[in-house]
Design goal:
With about 475 residues, this protein is of the alpha/beta class. The chain contains 14 helices and 20 strands. The chain has 2 domains: about 130 residues, Urease, subunit C, domain 1 (Roll); about 325 residues, TIM Barrel, CATH 3.20.20. It has a 9-stranded parallel β-sheet. It has a 7-stranded mixed β-sheet with strand order 3-2-7-17-18-19-20. Bound molecules: zinc ion.
Length: about 475
């Protein structure tokens, strides 16, 4: 087996530019970015050559928001191996996994158990969020110990979500921000106002509404705006880096942008479901399109796109959840009976390439910022992850920008083989994914579009990985 790989004739997407050059990979890292002539001198030596003629060579995407659910307990619906298979098949080489699990990751001991599961089962490289919960109130020592164990950031819910992950109230969030500000880590907030969510659902129930749109009407964008205003005020007060998860409100995005101009440390994430789906999809797909925040009407979607294109949005993540078809079908009779969350780790890159680059003309390097460099920066993984640069991990995606294809459930590699995007025609397809120099997915028909990585070959990325080694 050769230890040097040459990627020839591709168009490399570097920071802010695209260049025609060859890549030399050695020992899992990028060893050289070279002009064709130099690369050709390596011909005949002990190496593998990959021809990337006509292809873009992108850094592996980083999905900053996944729910693969390990240890899984009674939620054994995804897992690090299957979720990671879906990730690499979609060009995602690193995920930042959320703390929801059984139990939810709120202590260093639970965190270390999760790291052990990564070492046993992961396919994608994985960093981990730690959880901050309100009930029982979490001791500051647990937050400090999670950071010590290598957490990439912390996550809290402002609205009630799952029973295993109790929300924080405003006072608890203020306390957590003081602690997390001292650690210099990002604090991810699911920003929906709890009282408004509960009142909205009660209002729908009282009106006998269980139809799909009742979900969206129960938690309109105002629910996000109120919560984001609170989170930003606390961030301003404490200096904590607040990362707003899955923002789906144009006014909340404008507030975040304004706060940033005033010097508040805030980063903003949105998801493909708020960009390529809308309330029409919620009506059509019912429970299979139920997520929180809810899908928005087309005007709101257009305004969220403006924030993507003008740079307000730092990163796009999937918020991938592995619910079963049976789970989601329950929403057909009563939308509130379907659990909230959608699969998306495998469609993240191709759906965003199609929607942003092909349909809206976003330059490819700008998409790569949102899918690779910016998530790497926020979670302390840059520049070893999220960039094509000498010394970076050789995490790469060979991407055919011209191939048009149709999304089909049968080609999904995550455990729950359905997607709300099934049937859509996209332009731009992953043809090969390389993780630390190893081909982990071959997207050609000849190779059956196969995931080649073994469970356990994914690596745990402790905070600081980006500048170590
Ligand atoms: Zn989530």
């Amino acid at each position: 087996m050769s230890d040097t790989t040459l990627i020839r004739n591709g168009t490399l997407v570097l920071s802010g530019e695209m260049v025609r050059a060859d890549l030399v990979l050695r020992d899992g890292q990028i060893a050289g970015i070279v002009a064709g002539e130099v690369a050709m001198d390596l011909d005949g030596a002990n190496h593998e050559t990959i021809d990337a003629t006509g292809l873009l060579v992108l850094p592996g995407a980083i999905d900053a928001h996944t729910h693969f659910w390990e240890p899984a307990g009674d939620q054994d619906k995804e897992g690090f191996a299957a979720g990671g298979a879906g990730a690499v098949a979609g060009g995602v080489t690193t995920v930042v996994e959320m703390p929801q699990a059984s139990p939810t990751t709120v202590t260093a001991e639970q965190f270390r158990a999760k790291v052990a599961r990564i070492e046993a089962a992961a396919i994608a490289d994985m960093a981990l969020w730690g959880g901050v919960i309100g009930e029982p109130a979490q001791p500051e020592a647990d937050i400090l110990a999670l950071a010590e164990a290598g957490a990439a950031g912390f996550k809290s819910f402002m609205a009630s979500s799952s029973r295993s992950f109790p929300r924080v109230d405003t006072a608890q969030m203020l306390g957590a921000m003081r602690t997390i500000a001292g650690l210099g880590l990002p604090y991810g907030i699911h920003a929906e106002d709890d009282a408004l969510v509960l009142a909205g659902i009660a209002r729908m129930r009282a009106g006998g509404r269980t139809d799909p749109l009742a979900h969206a009407e129960s938690r309109p964008p105002l629910v996000e705006e109120v919560a984001v205003a609170t989170a930003l005020a606390l961030a301003d007060e404490t200096g904590c880096h607040v990362h707003l998860c899955h923002v789906a409100s144009a006014r909340a995005l404008a507030m975040a942008s304004g706060a940033r101009w005033r010097g508040v440390r805030v980063t903003v994430e949105t998801c493909p479901q708020y960009l390529v789906m809308d309330t029409g999809d919620l009506e059509r797909l019912a429970g299979f399109a139920r997520c929180a925040p809810a899908l928005r009407d087309p005007d709101e979607v257009a305004a969220i796109w403006d924030a993507v294109l003008d740079g307000t949005v730092d990163l796009i993540a999937s918020d991938h959840c592995g619910y079963t078809v049976e789970d989601k079908a329950a929403g057909g009779k009563d939308i509130f009976a379907a659990p909230m969350g959608l699969p998306g780790v495998q469609t993240l890159l191709p759906s965003m390439f199609d929607a942003a680059v092909v349909q809206r003309g976003l330059p490819v390097p700008r998409l790569v910022e949102m899918l690779c460099a910016n998530p790497a920066r926020v979670f302390g993984l840059y520049p070893r992850k999220g960039a094509i640069a000498v010394g970076s991990d050789a995490d790469l995606v060979l991407f055919d920008p011209a191939e048009t294809w149709t999304v089909r459930d049968e080609e999904l590699h995550h455990r729950q083989r359905w997607t709300p995007l099934a049937g859509r025609t996209l332009t731009g397809r992953v043809t090969r994914t390389i993780r630390r120099g190893e081909t982990v997915y071959d997207g050609t028909v000849a190779y059956d579009r196969r995931v080649l990585a073994a469970p356990g070959s994914g690596r745990f990325l402790a905070r600081g990985y980006g500048v170590s080694g």
